[in-house]
Specification:
Elements: H1 39-53, H2 60-83, H3 86-96, H4 99-118, E1 121-123, H5 126-133, E2 137-140, H6 142-146, E3 147-158, H7 165-176, H8 182-193, E4 202-207, E5 211-216, E6 219-224, H9 226-231, H10 238-249, E7 253-259, E8 262-273, H11 277-286, E9 290-294, H12 299-309, E10 313-315, H13 320-332, E11 337-341, H14 347-352, E12 355-359, H15 365-370, E13 373-375, H16 382-416, H17 422-441
Parallel strand pairs: 2-9, 2-11, 9-10, 11-12, 12-13
Antiparallel strand pairs: 1-13, 3-8, 4-5, 5-6, 6-7, 7-8
Helix pairs in contact: 2-3, 2-4, 3-16, 3-17, 4-16, 4-17, 5-16, 7-8, 11-16, 16-17
InterPro entries: ATPase_P-typ_cyto_dom_N, ATPase_P-typ_P_site, ATPase_P-typ_TM_dom_sf, ATPase_P-typ_transduc_dom_A_sf, ATPase_P-type_domA, Cation_Transport_ATPase_IB, HAD-like_sf, HAD_sf
Catalytic activity: Cd(2+)(in) + ATP + H2O = Cd(2+)(out) + ADP + phosphate + H(+)
GO molecular function: ATP binding; ATP hydrolysis activity; metal ion binding; P-type cadmium transporter activity
Length: 449
C-alpha cells in the first residue's frame, strides 16, 4: 500500500493495511473495518473519484471549425451582394471549407502515436499526447519506477581482520540459507550470483522479524537487526554505530553478524537504482521540466535516492491518498503534472494527474489501466523521448492550424479579388490539406532521442 522497497517488521497489536503482503511465516489478523471502509476499497474509490474529475479537452480545431462554416456562408452571401457575381460566392465557399484545419490535429496525433509505438511507448489517446506536451512537472514513484524494486547487497563490511568481504558474505549466506526473510534470501542470492560456495548450517533457529541463529563450520552465528544481536549479548562499539548510521543515511537495510559477543560485520542491502535514471532526470531538467519524488519510503531513503538521480523536491512517507493530495497541490499552483508509477498504490495519483505513465513490464494491472501511457520496456530513457515527441506534436498541430488559417485567409482575399475561380480555388484548398498532412507525416520518422 505504501510502495516501500524494504520489508517492515510488524508485531502484536500493530495495524496492517488491507492489500499488504506478508513476506514469510503465518500471522493471525483481526478485521477492524468492514469491506467498504478497508484501505483497498478507499483506494478504489479514489480512482473512481479521479476519473469523474477528468473532463475531456475540447480541441481547438473543432471549436474553430464550428464557427468557420457560418462565417464562410456569411462572407459568400456578402460577396454575392456586393459583386453580384455567383462565381465569386461559390469560390469563397470552396476555399473557406475548413478541411485542412480539421485534419491538422488527428493526422499529427496518428503519426506521433505510430512513432511512439515503434519505440515501445503505448499512448492510449491523442488527448494524453497533447497533455504531455504541456506538462511542466513530472512526479516519480521510487520503488519499481526509479528503481528495480528488488533488494540487492550493496555493502559488505567486515569488522574482523581475519575475514575478507568474500568470507563474510559466504559465512552470512550459509547461515541465512534456510531463512524465509527477504533480506536473508537476498544475501543468499548475492552469494550464489558471485559463485561463492555455501556451507550447510546446523541448529538453525529463526526469531520472526528479528534474526536467526545458525551454526556454520562449528561457529555459532547470529544474523539480524541491531536490536536482535544486542539483546543476545553482542556488543556494538563506536565503529559499528558510525557504520550503521552512515548506512541508514543512505536508506539501506543492515544485517549484522555476531559471534561470541562480538560483531563480525554488517551486510547492507538496498533497492537497485535503474542505471538510466540519473541521465533521464538531467535531460528533463534541460527541457525546463521540474521533477518530484513521491514515495511511501522513509524520508532518509527517499532523500538518498533523490540525491543519486538529481531530484531536488522530495515528498516521502506518503500513503496513496497523500500522493493524490500532493498532485492536487501542484495543480493548485498552476502546474501541469505527469505522474509516473507502477504499483497499486500509485493508481489514484496516476488518475489524478493531468497525464500519467505506467511502467508496463513491472507495473500492476490496476496501474496500467489507470495510466494513459505505458512504457512496455520499463526503460526510463523513454520519458525524455516522450516529452520531446509530445512537445513536437503540439508544435506541429499549432503550425498546421496556423498554416491552414493563413491559406484560407489568402484564398478568400484572392477569391474576392476574382483572381481565383472555383476550379483554381479547389486546387488551392486541396493543396492546403496536402501540406497539413505532409507536415504531420514528418513526425513519424523525425528523431526525438
Amino acid at each position: 500500500m505504501t510502495g516501500e522497497s524494504l520489508p517492515i517488521d510488524k508485531g502484536p497489536g500493530e495495524e496492517v493495511f488491507c492489500g499488504t503482503i506478508n513476506c514469510f511465516g503465518s500471522i493471525d489478523i483481526t478485521a477492524t473495518k468492514v469491506g467498504e471502509n478497508s484501505s483497498l476499497q478507499k483506494l478504489i474509490r479514489m480512482i473512481q473519484d479521479a476519473e469523474n474529475k477528468q473532463a475531456p479537452m475540447q480541441r481547438i480545431a473543432d471549436r474553430a471549425a464550428s464557427w468557420l462554416v457560418p462565417v464562410a456562408l456569411l462572407i459568400a452571401v456578402g460577396s454575392y451582394v456586393f459583386t453580384e457575381n455567383i462565381i465569386t460566392a461559390v469560390t469563397v465557399l470552396v476555399v473557406f471549407c475548413p478541411c485542412a484545419l480539421v485534419l491538422a490535429t488527428p493526422t499529427a496525433i496518428m503519426a506521433a502515436i505510430g512513432q511512439a509505438t515503434k519505440h515501445g511507448v503505448i499512448i492510449k489517446s491523442g488527448e494524453a499526447l497533447e497533455k504531455m506536451g504541456k506538462v511542466d512537472t513530472i512526479a516519480f514513484d521510487k520503488t519499481g519506477t526509479l528503481t528495480y524494486g528488488r533488494l540487492d547487497v550493496s555493502d559488505i563490511i567486515s569488522f574482523d581482520e581475519t575475514l575478507s568481504e568474500t568470507d563474510m558474505l559466504s559465512l552470512t549466506a550459509s547461515a541465512e540459507a534456510k531463512s524465509e526473510h527477504p533480506l536473508g534470501k537476498a544475501i543468499v542470492a548475492c552469494a550464489k550470483s558471485r559463485g561463492i560456495p555455501l556451507t550447510e548450517s546446523n541448529s538453525f533457529k529463526m526469531t520472526a522479524g528479528k534474526g536467526i541463529f545458525a551454526t556454520v563450520n562449528e561457529r555459532r552465528l547470529l544474523c539480524g537487526s541491531e536490536k536482535f544481536i544486542t539483546e543476545n549479548g553482542v556488543l556494538t562499539d563506536t565503529n559499528v554505530q558510525d557504520t550503521l548510521e552512515q548506512l541508514r543515511a543512505q536508506g539501506k537495510a543492515s544485517v549484522l553478524v555476531g559471534e561470541g559477543g562480538k560483531c563480525l560485520g554488517v551486510i547492507a542491502l538496498s533497492d537497485v537504482l535503474r542505471p538510466e535514471a540519473k541521465d533521464m532526470v538531467a535531460r528533463l531538467l534541460d527541457m525546463h521540466t521540474q521533477t518530484v519524488l513521491l514515495t511511501g519510503d522513509h524520508q532518509k531513503t527517499a532523500d538518498y535516492f533523490a540525491r543519486q538521480v538529481g531530484i531536488s523536491r522530495v515528498c516521502a512517507e506518503l500513503l496513496p491518498e497523500e500522493k493524490v493530495r500532493s498532485i492536487e497541490n501542484f495543480q493548485a499552483e498552476n502546474h501541469r503534472v505527469c505522474m509516473i508509477g507502477d504499483g497499486v498504490n500509485d493508481a489514484p495519483a496516476l488518475k489524478t494527474a493531468d497525464v500519467s505513465v505506467a511502467m508496463g513490464t513491472m507495473g500492476s494491472d490496476i496501474a496500467i489501466n489507470a495510466a494513459e501511457i505505458a512504457l512496455m520496456s520499463d526503460d526510463l530513457s523513454k520519458i525524455p523521448y516522450l516529452k520531446r515527441l509530445s512537445n513536437g506534436t503540439v508544435a506541429t498541430i499549432k503550425a498546421s492550424i496556423t498554416l491552414s488559417m493563413c491559406i484560407n485567409f489568402a484564398a478568400i482575399v484572392l477569391s474576392l479579388m476574382e483572381v481565383l475561380t472555383p476550379t483554381t480555388g479547389a486546387l488551392v484548398h486541396n493543396a492546403g490539406s496536402c501540406f497539413v498532412v505532409l507536415i504531420a507525416a514528418l513526425l513519424y520518422d523525425r528523431k526525438f532521442e
